[in-house]
Amino acid sequence: MTEKEIIHVFHSGQHERAFNAIVENYSERLYWVVRRLGNSHEDTDDLLQDIFVKIWTALPSFRGEAQLYTWLYRIALNETLNFLSRQRVRAALQFKSLDEEMERRIDDDPYFNGNEAERALSKAIARLPGKQKTVFMMRYYDDLPYEEIARITGTSVGSLKASYHIASEKIREELKNFTIDF
Asked: Is residue 177 over pLDDT 80?
């Protein structure tokens, strides 16, 4: 079902059918949005359930000013960033580093099937500050145009370009011994 069909089905009063179509059409894409931000498979599954609950409750307020996927992406991104923020606070209260925890998760992840270069890239991304990490992943993995990222994040295109450039340079410096193209 297309975005327009889903919205039409929702507005015709078939809310559950529209929601089921959203889950069917966007679960995998949203899973990778959440997962790439440094969450374990288990945390990602839990977060995805929370995200879909949030989508269900917010769906009546969707005004169609943005594409449906942009709106869903923003919800997923906000929920994930809130989750990471809570984790960062918990780590600080336990005198731990969330960055080190994220790196450990990458090393211990039984679902990670990449090579050493991909593992190093994942770790380098995990060490980026929040905004740089978000912008880098949206451009590098999702291949979203800056204009779309701006709509999702509420940030100017110029600021996003600068953040992406800085993130790319940091990653390039960390991975100078590997051949990965950004």
From this structure: no
Average pLDDT over the chain, rounded to an integer? 84
Kindly write down the DSSP assignment for every residue of the chain, as one continuous string.
Answer: --HHHHHHHHHTT-HHHHHHHHHHHHHHHHHHHHHHTT--HHHHHHHHHHHHHHHHHHGGG--SSS-HHHHHHHHHHHHHHHHHHHHHHHHHHTT--HHHHHHHHHHH-TT----HHHHHHHHHHHTS-HHHHHHHHHHHTT---HHHHHHHHT--HHHHHHHHHHHHHHHHHHTTTS----
| Overall fold of domain 1-101 | Rna Polymerase Sigma Factor; Chain: A (1.10.1740)
- Per-residue pLDDT of 51-87, as tens digits, reads 999 999 999 989 888 889 999 999 999 898 888 877 7
